[in-house]
Design a protein that fits this description.
The complex is a heterodimer. By secondary structure, chain A is an alpha/beta fold. Chain A is 40% helix and 15% strand. Chain B has one domain (3-112). Classes of the chains: A alpha/beta, B mainly alpha. The A-B interface holds A 37, 55-61, 63, 67, 70-71, 74-75, 78, 170, 174 and B 94, 97-98, 100-101, 103-105, 107-108, 112.
């Protein structure tokens, strides 16, 4: 291994977008390794990702976004990477933001940096309904941890190895890891920060937010998980 | 308690008991799951044979009739079994997740080396 930074891209049936994402990251940051975690796709995601020059980790069946992310974390941790950037495989996240989020971690300014669409003027504005949900979780984060996080649902993040060591544990909330992770990390004393990133609207349109039952479940799960994370005790094995 | 009712209850209780023992013997059911079922069979049998005990418990929990006491405990038992299953399923889901992740990483590492 030459590089000390791994870019993790979870992907489920992203044959249209994945090549573009991988090749633009390779062009911008040739020094970084890229791993695509294929979450049991039934299309050509694996071939497209390999052709574009990524390492591919392939789940035997679909297990969900959070589990795909954690597979990437486990791989990164074992391979000894010092820094990890995670970015979505659908092309919503602009890869030029990788440097923005990563630099703050490398500088030691924070252990984990979340890319926020709200700190960037050019990012798309989510629908009113989604915005209401985001405001609710912003409030809960502030209430439970005292942290101000503008974009608690972002999948665009950079972190160091210490955070990685937390994310590979069994208690990592693989079922939509978002706002509860902020509570978890802040309770463990990690420095969390945000950086502006550019996000485009999802053109594919197969977001979980199109299913009202899923949205309700998400709100329930996240609220419960945030409160329980706050009152739980966690112990992390050393590196 | 009418005799017919008593006989029915005894037959059911004894059948459950032997079914569980037989399933464990044939290794279709692990010992660790059998205890709750065996306990239920035993309680059912004891309550049928000792009707006064059932009447006493009925008074204790404030139920109107001994039959409702039986139903009450049956429902509690079912809830407990469901919770036990939920716990097991959560644990198994975790195991499947970890195994699949392990396999996924091994597949790629083997290719790399």
């Amino acid at each position: 291994m030459v590089s000390d930074t791994l870019v993790i891209i979870p992907a489920y049936n992203e044959e249209k977008a994945i090549s573009g994402v991988v090749s633009s990251i390779r062009k911008l940051y040739p020094e970084m390794d890229i791993v695509v975690v294929n979450d049991g796709s039934s299309d050509e995601t694996v071939v497209k990702a390999e052709d574009a020059g990524a390492i591919v980790l392939s789940h035997s069946f679909n297990m969900g976004y959070g589990i795909a992310l954690q597979t990437g974390y486990k791989y990164a941790f074992r391979r000894g990477y010092r820094f990890v950037v995670q970015i979505d495989g659908d092309g919503q996240h602009d890869p030029t933001g990788i440097k923005t989020v990563l630099d703050r971690v490398k500088d030691g300014y924070a252990d984990i940096v979340l890319g926020s669409r709200f700190l960037s003027d050019d990012s798309y504005k989510p629908s009113l309904l989604r915005l209401t949900g985001i405001r609710f979780f912003r409030f809960l984060i502030r209430f439970l941890s005292g942290k101000v996080i503008t974009d608690p649902t972002t999948g665009f993040q950079a972190m160091n190895r210490n955070v990685l060591n937390v994310f590979i544990q069994d208690f990592f909330p693989v079922d939509y890891p978002d706002a509860d992770v902020v509570i978890l990390l802040s309770g463990l004393g990690f420095k969390i920060s945000e950086a502006p990133v550019l996000m485009r609207p999802n053109l594919g349109g197969k977001s979980m937010h199109s299913n009202p039952m899923r949205v309700l479940y998400y709100i329930f799960k996240m609220t419960l998980s945030m409160f329980l994370t706050k009152i739980r005790k966690y112990s992390i094995p050393g590196n | 308690m009418p005799l017919e009712q008593k006989i029915t209850a005894i037959i059911i209780a004894v059948s459950i008991f032997f079914l569980i023992i037989e399933l464990v013997r044939r290794r279709k059911l692990r010992e660790e799951y059998s205890w709750l079922w065996l306990l239920t069979g035993t309680i059912l049998l004891v309550l049928t044979l000792e009707y006064q005990l059932l009447v006493w418990i009925t008074g204790l929990i404030g139920a109107a009739a001994p039959t409702s006491t039986l139903f009450f405990f049956a429902i509690i038992f079912l809830i407990l079994v469901c919770i036990q299953f939920s716990i097991r399923i959560s644990k198994l889901t975790d195991h499947v997740k970890n195994l699949s992740q392990e396999l996924t990483i091994l597949k790629t590492t083997r290719k790399e080396n």
